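agent: user wants the structure for Fibronectin type-III domain-containing protein from Helobdella robusta. delegating to structure tool.
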Amino acid sequence: MESANTPTELSAGVLEDDRLKITDLYPIILVPMSLNAHKGTLNSSSPPKKLKVNLHNETSVLVTWEPPEKPNGIIKNYKVYYDLWNNSTFHKSFNWKFVSTSASTHSTVLHHLLANSTYIIKILASNSLGDGLLSDSVKIFVGSKTG
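agent: tool returned. relaying tokens verbatim.
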């Protein structure tokens, strides 16, 4: 006969006397750590800020930006990506071209663009761990200056 203090196992795994029996435990090791990652490579740079694109002449645009808020290291260079914009192929692969600038440069001119065409432009910063996150896109129509 069981004593009044000895629980008896029930089919749901709950024990009498409102106690629970836990079985089949496996050892684990908890290692405290912290990761600070988002949408990119761990420790990559945040995107450069305030990307602006202005018409330079009929086949060139001036691209300017500010350094990223969180470079996560020393910026090595910037890469300005650009391609022709076509609404019908927006969700398809782009044929991106890019120019690279030094870390101290916050502007560049994209030359030899097709006149009377729309371009889409993005930028990223690179640090010792590689390329950072791309900025939002800016679209610009390249053509004759009016006025």
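agent: one observation worth passing along. The longest strand covers residues 117-127.
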